[in-house]
Amino acid sequence: GAVPAGRGGKMASTAAGKQRIPKVAKVKNKAPAEVQITAEQLLREAKERELELLPPPPQQKITDVEELNDYKLRKRKTFEDNIRKNRTVISNWIKYAQWEESLKEIQRARSIYERALDVDYRNVTLWLKYAEMEMKNRQVNHARNIWDRAITTLPRVNQFWYKYTYMEEMLGNIAGSRQVFERWMEWQPEEQAWHSYINFELRYKEVDRARTIYERYILFTLLVIVHPDVKNWIKYARFEEKHSYFAHARKVYERAVEFFGEEHMNEHLYVAFAKFEENQKEFERVRVIYKYALDRIPKQDAQNLFKNYTIFEKKFGDRRGIEDIIVSKRRFQYEEEVKANPHNYDAWFDYLRLVESDTDAETVREVYERAIANVPPIQEKRHWKRYIYLWINYALYEELEAKASKRTRQVYQACIELIPHKKFTFAKIWLLYAQFEIRQKNLPLARRALGTSIGKCPKNKLFKGYIELELQLREFDRCRKLYEKFLEFAPENCTSWIKFAELETILGDIDRARAIYELAIGQPRLDMPEVLWKSYIDFEIEQEEYEKTRNLYRRLLQRTQHVKVWISFAQFELSAGREGSLSRCRQIYEEANKAMRNCEEKEERVMLLESWRNFEDEFGSDTTKERIDKLMPEKIKKRRKLQAEDGSDAGWEEYYDYIFPEDTANQPNLKLLAMAKLWKKQQQESEAAEVDPDKDVDESQS
């Protein structure tokens, strides 16, 4: 009956080959559908359909006991199945117990809660629901039993304690509630629990018991809490104050101040203490408390303290007290500014102005010393310009306010030693020091200081200050020496040359003054040569040396052909007031006009001719006036091409040019211009004739 191996294998392969392969439906139309549906749209539609209201289940009316028992059986089976599926879902247990409770099956509900507690005894909600059920059904002893078990099992859940004490209090069992609170306090709970206990005792007027609890709590904070909060002390003191135990309240505040000491001072404690004393009309105590706190608490932590102290002084203090607190507050602000940026010299100035107006000399000196210690880190004059005024103000304070001349001298000398004179100096410091020594009637020291300054770091301002000092002292020989040194240092300074010459003129040494002017104009480089020449010319005019003045003008014209020099020369000749002054003046104008024919600046030549015309209008004859009128140029408008910086065309601009009749090169241009004007006039006349021919005929007939 056995089948051969080869044949069996063949039959097996044939059977496998005959297995049917499922056919895939062939898609005839592979074109995309007209309406495309995205996955997002499918999800949205599914969500919308979830929200559609399902019809409510039909109401079932139970008419007899059998139907009720059947309903209970089915419902209990459903709840038990849910619990069996997942025992850890406590909401299923609670729903089951609440359903049994709704049927007044308290024993069954109690059994369900007990079974649930076996599953998860740490679930707070379960205990609460269980106890609430017992309380709702007036099962007080059962509820008390549940609360006892809850606080024994989970003593750190505050809600159990709150509910338990509240239940006992509602039942009027004050002793029982107090006993629960005492059990709770043994666990050293948080702050709110203690305050709840205190408030409980206060509700029943047990002030002594409340005080005892406060004392226990304060002791607890001292022993257990590392950083006790000041607000508990304040609450304790306010409790005593509220019940009119003012001595006890003051004692609590004093204990708090002693406990926190100076290391952990808190502004809120002192504000509360001060307000307590203020309520007791102890104003001197209040002031002492505020000042004690302000002197010891860091300024950045004392904003509220400042504010309350200010309000107190405004209410009960005098004007001096109010000013003191305002000054103190502003000092704190300035301290913060200079601490943030020690090189903020403007803040130092404001701070010093404040302390100078209100504090003693030692405090002012201390602030000045702190300020000047902040030397600019870079040795550049622009960084020192504000800093140096700290030294100046310091010296002036010592001299004018403190009346300490010795300290003033030390301040000036220290400042002079500090300045790096090889790189830069401040002439103001040297001059102020010298003036101070003169006020002290110590002239040799003043001269020594100024001499040292000129030797170390000569400056124009130093020379001028020193010379002015010697002039005031009428030491003219010293002034001459100083001017000589000054001019050796700065030979290009025209003002110095002029002042030196003026000094000699005042002293009556005219030859010496003239020699100084000659030396001055002979210098190869001058900063304001025109001022120097004008001063020299004015000097010779004052001396009525007209010939020398003319020579000066000629020498000046050899150096420059500026139109103002020519005009000034002509006006000098006119003002000389001698015979032939008009002819000499006209001659100078003639020379100037010839000299300026080749001048590129035509406006200067026009200025000269206008000055000449004004002269002729006042002093000339008709012939000379007609001649100058012929010399006046014609002003024409021209255009020229502009080029930008990159060489591209920037358009055209209009400008005015002058054409002088004397210039022979411009004669063809003038002739062409005249012909163009004549042609333009003829064109205008012909156009007018074409516009109104009848009018021309009528005019010809008439």
UniProtKB/TrEMBL annotation:
<keyword id="KW-0175">Coiled coil</keyword>
<dbReference type="GO" id="GO:0071011">
    <property type="term" value="C:precatalytic spliceosome"/>
</dbReference>
<keyword id="KW-0747">Spliceosome</keyword>
<dbReference type="GO" id="GO:0016607">
    <property type="term" value="C:nuclear speck"/>
</dbReference>
<keyword id="KW-0507">mRNA processing</keyword>
<feature type="coiled-coil region">
    <location>
        <begin position="539"/>
        <end position="605"/>
    </location>
</feature>
<dbReference type="InterPro" id="IPR003107">
    <property type="entry name" value="HAT"/>
</dbReference>
<comment type="similarity">
    <text>Belongs to the crooked-neck family.</text>
</comment>
<keyword id="KW-0539">Nucleus</keyword>
<feature type="compositionally biased region" description="Acidic residues">
    <location>
        <begin position="687"/>
        <end position="702"/>
    </location>
</feature>
<keyword id="KW-0597">Phosphoprotein</keyword>
<feature type="domain" description="Pre-mRNA-splicing factor Syf1/CRNKL1-like C-terminal HAT-repeats">
    <location>
        <begin position="91"/>
        <end position="376"/>
    </location>
</feature>
<comment type="function">
    <text>Involved in pre-mRNA splicing process. As a component of the minor spliceosome, involved in the splicing of U12-type introns in pre-mRNAs.</text>
</comment>
<feature type="domain" description="Pre-mRNA-splicing factor Syf1/CRNKL1-like C-terminal HAT-repeats">
    <location>
        <begin position="403"/>
        <end position="554"/>
    </location>
</feature>
<dbReference type="GO" id="GO:0000245">
    <property type="term" value="P:spliceosomal complex assembly"/>
</dbReference>
<dbReference type="GO" id="GO:0071007">
    <property type="term" value="C:U2-type catalytic step 2 spliceosome"/>
</dbReference>
<feature type="region of interest" description="Disordered">
    <location>
        <begin position="682"/>
        <end position="702"/>
    </location>
</feature>
<dbReference type="GO" id="GO:0071014">
    <property type="term" value="C:post-mRNA release spliceosomal complex"/>
</dbReference>
<keyword id="KW-0508">mRNA splicing</keyword>
<dbReference type="InterPro" id="IPR045075">
    <property type="entry name" value="Syf1-like"/>
</dbReference>
<keyword id="KW-0677">Repeat</keyword>
<dbReference type="Pfam" id="PF23231">
    <property type="entry name" value="HAT_Syf1_CNRKL1_C"/>
</dbReference>
<dbReference type="InterPro" id="IPR055430">
    <property type="entry name" value="HAT_Syf1_CNRKL1_C"/>
</dbReference>
<dbReference type="InterPro" id="IPR011990">
    <property type="entry name" value="TPR-like_helical_dom_sf"/>
</dbReference>
<dbReference type="GO" id="GO:0000974">
    <property type="term" value="C:Prp19 complex"/>
</dbReference>
<protein>
    <recommendedName>
        <fullName>Crooked neck-like protein 1</fullName>
    </recommendedName>
</protein>
<feature type="region of interest" description="Disordered">
    <location>
        <begin position="1"/>
        <end position="23"/>
    </location>
</feature>
